[in-house]
Design goal:
By secondary structure, the protein is of the alpha/beta class. It has a single domain, classed as TIM Barrel. The protein has twelve helices and nine strands. Strands 1-2-3-4-5-6-7-9 form an eight-stranded parallel barrel, surrounded by eight helices. Helix 7 links the parallel strand 6 and strand 7. Helix 3 runs parallel beside helix 5 and helix 9 crosses helix 10.
């Protein structure tokens, strides 16, 4: 049975503020724990009014405090935005407070626009140092070595598991070289999914953290009582992708009956290309879609994003997915 996990955007909507988005994220995590999901991740986004997880480690502490057993992590932290020692301090603290439950997924892109990168006091060139920064960060989580002059307190010895995230083959190569679990962002960049998985598995080198390749695929899944309901729930995300193309990174919008009234033919083509791996429909449709995806990719884990506007409908979507697919609390990369 493939493990199921959740990637939550901590969405601010037209009818909820950031505080409500954070409360709802923690509530979803508590429900996911009871439904058997393996882990609950949030991602670092900056300068996006519709996403409330910019202070990622703070959000994760809040979510971990509202749950008991589910793994909680970043999917991910955009490492070029930070000094590795600062991230080690933050996630080492989380690991001390919630031992055995913290994951740290790392992305190479800044995850925002160039103006915000400057506001973060970072350089666009920092992404070129990504492999070295990953190794530096990894070292901070290990036991302190003789003569080590700089420590990330209290990270030493916590061995927080690192993941490499990617939407191209670059991350696959790095994850394979370092022997780390790999998560591919097919929820918005599906084109290179299969090449990236092939590179990761064929080039994987065992490491202290991981003996064999472990591949996670992030995928949009929307479950309703009927196929029509599932497809309607998905229109919230479709509108968000159209809005980004229009230069509008605003708040999440409620679903609509006819998405063709919202987008132009060009916007539709671009959006559907990015969302081509989306699975939406009744529980039976979701089960068939997941079975086909796992058969094709041999994924060890699915990181599910169900970007549903209404909180109760979002809970129901994740519950139906868990019931339709089955959940496993075991994950080899944990």
């Amino acid at each position: 049975m493939v493990a199921l996990s959740i990637l939550d955007l901590v969405r601010v909507t037209e009818t909820t503020d950031a505080a409500a988005a954070l409360v709802q994220a923690r509530d979803l995590a508590a429900h996911a724990e009871r439904w058997g999901y393996t882990r609950f991740w949030v991602a670092e986004h900056h300068n996006m009014p519709g996403i409330a997880s910019a202070a990622t480690s703070v959000v994760l502490g809040y979510i971990a405090d509202g749950t008991k057993t589910i793994r909680v992590g970043a999917g991910g932290v955009m490492l070029p935005n930070h000094a590795p020692i600062v991230i080690a301090e933050q996630f080492g603290t989380l690991a001390q407070l919630y031992p055995g439950r913290i994951d740290l997924g790392l992305g190479r892109a800044p995850g925002t626009d160039q103006y915000t990168v400057r506001a973060l006091r970072r350089s666009l060139d920092n992404s070129e140092r990504f492999p070295q920064d990953v190794l530096e960060l990894q070292a901070y989580f290990r036991d302190v070595q003789p003569g080590q002059r700089v420590q990330a307190v209290p990270a030493a010895g916590t061995e927080v598991p690192l993941w490499i995230l990617g939407s191209s083959t670059y991350g696959a190569q790095l994850a394979a070289e370092l022997g780390l679990p790999y998560a591919f962002a097919s929820h918005f960049a599906p084109d290179l999914l299969m090449p990236a998985l092939e590179i990761y598995r064929s080039r994987f080198k065992p490491s202290q953290q991981l003996a064999r390749p472990y591949a996670t695929i992030s995928v949009n899944i929307y479950a309703g009582e009927t196929d029509a309901e599932g497809r309607r729930l998905a229109t919230t995300q479709q509108m968000s992708f159209v809005d980004v193309q229009r230069g509008d990174r605003g708040l999440s919008k409620p679903p609509i009956d006819n998405i063709d009234d919202y987008w132009s033919p060009v916007e539709k083509a671009r959006t559907m290309a990015m969302l081509s791996r989306t699975i939406a429909g009744s529980p039976a449709t979701v089960r068939a879609g997941v079975d086909a995806l796992v058969a094709e990719t041999k994924a060890d884990e699915l990181m599910i994003l169900s970007d549903v506007y209404d909180h109760q409908a979002r809970l129901r979507s994740y519950q139906l997915i868990a019931e339709a697919v089955g959940t496993s609390s075991e994950a080899a990369a944990a």
